[in-house]
Design brief:
There is one protein chain. This protein is an alpha+beta fold and 163 residues long. It folds into 2 domains: 4-77; 93-162, Transcription elongation factor, GreA/GreB, C-terminal domain (Chitinase A, domain 3). The chain has helices spanning 4-38, 51-77, 132-137, and strands at 93-97, 103-108, 116-119, 122-127, 145-150, 153-162. The chain has a 6-stranded mixed sheet with strand order 3-4-2-1-6-5. The longest helix is centred in the N-terminal third of the chain and has 35 residues, at 4-38. The two termini are 14 Å apart. It comes from Vibrio olivae. This is Transcription elongation factor. One of its GO terms (molecular function) is translation elongation factor activity. Keywords: Elongation factor, Protein biosynthesis.
């Protein structure tokens, strides 16, 4: 098994790569939506023709998504390097163990909750303080048990490792 410090750095690097790729896609979507909204073919032909209006709504939505991508990138760029944490905080890579001892990785992120990345044979899920899991993880230590509910289903994990 490779060093957790290296692993965490590689996980953060992959997250930043994915956020940058998402930003590129969002930027291209904004450009396309603006082109569609301002294209002379979308000029209304009669009072019930709403193509231009719909295109402008789409452009607005795509611009908001682009802004979210930029905020995610900024949040990760300003992420503090947490070294040898004693408790769970933003910037930690956490190994959770279920009742059967089966582990899963989560990264306590400042934003982009729910994003999943492949890391070798493992999957790392980004969780934020706003998520049910993130809310119960914050401030916990190795060996602590965390229990949370999602849509009426209860989940229980032990914190096996914090990096």
């Amino acid at each position: 098994m490779m060093s957790e410090a290296i692993r965490k750095a590689e996980v953060i690097d992959k997250i930043q790569q994915m956020l940058t790729a998402n930003h590129r896609v969002a930027l291209e979507s904004v450009r396309s939506a603006i082109d569609a909204a301002t294209n002379e073919q979308t000029v209304p032909e009669h009072k019930y023709d709403t193509l231009a209006l719909e295109a402008s709504y789409l452009a607005h939505g795509q611009a908001k998504r682009l802004q979210e991508c930029e905020q995610d990138i900024q949040a990760f760029n300003s992420l503090s390097d947490v070294r040898n944490p004693t408790k769970v905080m933003v910037g930690c890579l956490i190994r959770l163990l279920d009742e059967s001892g089966i582990g899963r990785w989560v990264f306590f992120a400042p934003s982009a909750g729910g994003m999943k990345i492949r890391f070798g044979d493992d999957e790392v899920t980004l969780v934020t303080i706003q998520s049910p899991l993130g809310a119960v993880l914050k401030g916990k230590n190795v060996g602590d048990e965390v229990i949370y509910d999602v849509e009426g289903r209860q989940y229980c994990y032990e914190i096996g490792q914090i990096d």
